[in-house]
């Protein structure tokens, strides 16, 4: 690791509140606030008008390495993450080969360290080859150098209730959490779009909300039954928010474990903003799994995030090659870019609407995801002695999304040409500036 | 009109104009020994069929040839498509090779709309000849042409569409066009074969065929594929046929003047009894011959009138 410089951040408002302060970052930690003298400072950042938040933590990214380096690599994905304000990301297991063993997870972890722009934590597969039939070697991955703690077959649902029960149970000994892609496969055979008015008109086979909700309900019950931690990936429906609200209120079990301590959930930026009305163009840039839902789902997800029923925002950043998107809808791969637009979408959907203040943004984009993943040095308070993982945001800025200006190799952003509020100005990772004014500092 | 992708794009005047042109072409060709008009001489029409189809493809080919267009048939099997070429590249290739119009049948809903976007600026028009579960606009036009011949103007008429609405592109195109032309549409199907949100389609929905027949001016029987049983959309072909098949007893429930349509291919004994299909009330072969005239009219409006000016 490179030696962190001594940096002075001048005149920044912590969490967007209170008076501006100066932060002295030294030795990778926040060394002083409002220092009287600043000898030996290598770099001064004028943060007038900016706000400081703890560096963002993304529980759900697809970095595509190994296997699809034509769409994203750990290097380009790390760059996109740094530019988006992230200091830690979790790389999903659906690579080629699948991250279902210690060799692959250690490779991803090591490449992340070499790139050094963010902490790259590999997610381990729950089942061998994401096949849903045999448990992967969760313990070996947990005990590997990568120290895997989040396991997920994301892209596929761990649909077999017995396998899910065992995975939950087994992961308890590892201090792990099972992150479920909730999709009952029998209810989504051939599914192409949210089952509703738009899909019916467009002749696209429906992906019904209940296919997600039924699995979430089942797994909340299973998790509490075995006292294991469950994280729900990309909640997309109003009904799932209701199920989570119900599950979180259930009384503690005989061992005194409350559901509240076992359950967590994420929502993606795109499910907070976009609806299935966009499908009328048949442009597969809008194809994603779970699919874009309706306006009332969007409203319910925003409310659930504000209330804490959904804990955090995770991007589900999913790069895809042009040939896998520039085709007919049914042939296209699902997924969209998200790392560099997440903050702005959260600002547009949660801050500008008054549902969250910037303190709340810190909670949903940094603190809660760091807690869920058990990261000791991420999502920490902006206080003396804490790790210098932080992001400086210009809340007044507006910018227009251009795919060609994003760091990802792939260009599948649904926000092309959209003007969005709030901009990441500077990202600081363990005291070192990793992104500044839209440029990666490596 | 530059493309014909959906009947939703047709306002009443445009749709009526197409139907009038089709009727004029039919009258012009009636009784002629040589059915050849010079209208599209020198224009190139390419049919691109990614699904097997006899009637639609032949109908388009005949329509083009009767108007003296050069018609070229490309099928997914015997072309570069079989070598894994993308739809986009195939379309750009055909356009660059001089196609004035591409007629596309594709299993993916929305494929013709994508094609039209990819070909923007090339001057090549696109006709949707059936895309997935989405639309089949020329089928709806030929159905409307047939209904006009049998019933006169469609405004205020009550038209039943019976069967697998969920998976039917014919149903979607017909719902839009019939409503544009002022008809009342009744969809009759078991709940499993109706799409989510059908209550917003501006149609009446019914699960009882017998109750709808006495007030219907026409019924359109949709093909029900027996393989839908495997998706548990209905318990058995027999039960479906008993509840929703148009048999002779049901034919008697229809008013005297009512017409029976079927887009084909028919499953005799399933959604329609053989005696009904062959009765004088059925307009099934009339639909096929009108198909040629309607498709001639579509090609005429797309290619001969300059396009893009409507």
TrEMBL record, chain A:
Organism of derivation: Longimycelium tulufanense
Gene assigned in the entry: pyrC
Residues reported to bind Zn(2+) 1: 60, 62, 154, 316
EC numbers on record: 3.5.2.3
Keywords: Hydrolase, Metal-binding, Pyrimidine biosynthesis, Zinc
Protein name: Dihydroorotase
Protein's job: Catalyzes the reversible cyclization of carbamoyl aspartate to dihydroorotate.
Reaction(s) catalysed by this chain's protein: (S)-dihydroorotate + H2O = N-carbamoyl-L-aspartate + H(+)
Keyword Repeat: no
Positions of substrate binding: 62-64, 94, 289, 320, 334-335
Pfam families: DHOase
Family: Belongs to the metallo-dependent hydrolases superfamily. DHOase family. Class I DHOase subfamily.
NCBIfam families from the UniProt entry: PRK09357.1-1, pyrC_multi
From TrEMBL, chain B:
Domain of life: Bacteria
GO molecular-function term, one example from the UniProt record: aspartate carbamoyltransferase activity
Pathway of action: Pyrimidine metabolism; UMP biosynthesis via de novo pathway; (S)-dihydroorotate from bicarbonate: step 2/3
Residues that coordinate or bind carbamoyl phosphate: 55-56, 105, 136, 139, 264-265
UniProt GO BP: 'de novo' pyrimidine nucleobase biosynthetic process; 'de novo' UMP biosynthetic process; amino acid metabolic process
Domain Aspartate/ornithine carbamoyltransferase carbamoyl-P binding: 2-149
Keywords linked to the UniProt accession: Pyrimidine biosynthesis, Transferase
Binding site for L-aspartate: 83, 169, 223
Reactions listed under catalytic activity: carbamoyl phosphate + L-aspartate = N-carbamoyl-L-aspartate + phosphate + H(+)
Pfam family, one: OTCace_N
Gene Ontology cellular component annotations, sorted alphabetically: cytosol
Residue stretches making up the Aspartate/ornithine carbamoyltransferase Asp/Orn-binding domain: 156-302
InterPro entries named in the record: Asp/Orn_carbamoyltranf_P-bd, Asp/Orn_carbamoylTrfase, Asp/Orn_carbamoylTrfase_sf, Asp_carbamoyltransf, Asp_carbamoyltransf_Asp/Orn-bd
Gene3D superfamilies: Aspartate/ornithine carbamoyltransferase (3.40.50.1370)
SUPFAM superfamilies tied to this protein: Aspartate/ornithine carbamoyltransferase
EC number from the UniProt entry: 2.1.3.2
Subunit comment: Heterododecamer (2C3:3R2) of six catalytic PyrB chains organized as two trimers (C3), and six regulatory PyrI chains organized as three dimers (R2).
Function: Catalyzes the condensation of carbamoyl phosphate and aspartate to form carbamoyl aspartate and inorganic phosphate, the committed step in the de novo pyrimidine nucleotide biosynthesis pathway.
Family affiliation: Belongs to the aspartate/ornithine carbamoyltransferase superfamily. ATCase family.
PANTHER family, per database record: ASPARTATE CARBAMOYLTRANSFERASE (PTHR45753:SF6), ORNITHINE CARBAMOYLTRANSFERASE, MITOCHONDRIAL (PTHR45753)
Record-given protein name: Aspartate carbamoyltransferase
Gene name tied to this protein: pyrB
